[in-house]
Amino acid sequence: MLKAEPKDKSTVVDILTKAFNENRSFNSIIKQDKNRVKRIRKVFEYYFDVCSKSGLVYLSDDKKACAVVSFPDQLKVTFKSILMDIRLLFLLGFKSVRLGVRREAKINKVHPESNFYYLLFIGVDPDFQYQGIGSKLLKELITDSKLLGRPVYLETYLEKNITLYQRFGFTIYKELDCGFPLFCMKREFI
Questions:
Q1: Is the per-residue pLDDT at 190 higher than 80?
Q2: CA dist list (Å): 57 to 62, 112, 113, 144, 169
Q3: Which of 18, 117, 125, 158 could disulfide-link to 150, CB 3.0 to 4.6 Å?
Q4: What is the sign of the dihedral through the CA atoms of 17, 124, 120 and 178?
Q5: Spelled out in words, what is the top-level CATH class assigned to the domain 2-187?
Q6: Tens digits of per-residue pLDDT, 59-100?
Q7: 117-124 and 152-156: which strand pairing?
């Protein structure tokens, strides 16, 4: 896997936009109109920028998959981060941001106090799914988390993803009601 550089931002955003285009959880907080895809792209641009500073952004070796990892303990409030948040608020609208903040608050309540490796997004370009690219990247992320001494945490609502993550040693530690079941999963060190 490759650490994403600033020049890789559009590649990462393209992959995630395609991979999450039909994602129910994601789309439940994005206004559904002619600018929906533009908004999705802006959200992923935002997370690329944030996690490039307080986490990690990776691409698979073939640049067909990517992952966005956050280290919540390293998030810092700066003038620039406040400006980024304000821009996102105006782009998404108050209602979408309010829904997103509420969901994030529910999730944060069940996160550990200790440092962890928060897998915010992992996605494979839909044209290249079901070829093992995502599984290979996930395996590399798990190895990376071990090297950093941080357990991996993530959320999913998709049954097929639960099965995939369980194959890699993840367990469900909490189920949240977000208008649909959202499964909080973790992978401790084995």
A1: no
A2: 15, 22, 23, 12, 22
A3: 117
A4: positive
A5: alpha beta
A6: 999 999 999 999 999 878 777 877 777 777 767 777 777 777
A7: parallel
Q: Is the pLDDT of residue 118 over 70?
A: yes
- Residues in Cβ contact with 125 at an 8 Å cutoff, skipping those fewer than 6 apart: 14, 15, 18, 19, 64, 65
Q: According to DSSP H, which parts of the chain are helical? A: 9-19, 24-27, 36-54, 79-92, 94-109, 133-148, 159-167
Residue boundaries of the structural domains of the chain: 2-187
Burial degree of 10 (CB within 10 A; 0-12, 13-18, 19+): exposed
Averaged pLDDT, 126-140: 96
Q: Is the pLDDT of residue 31 over 70?
A: yes
AA letter at 114: S
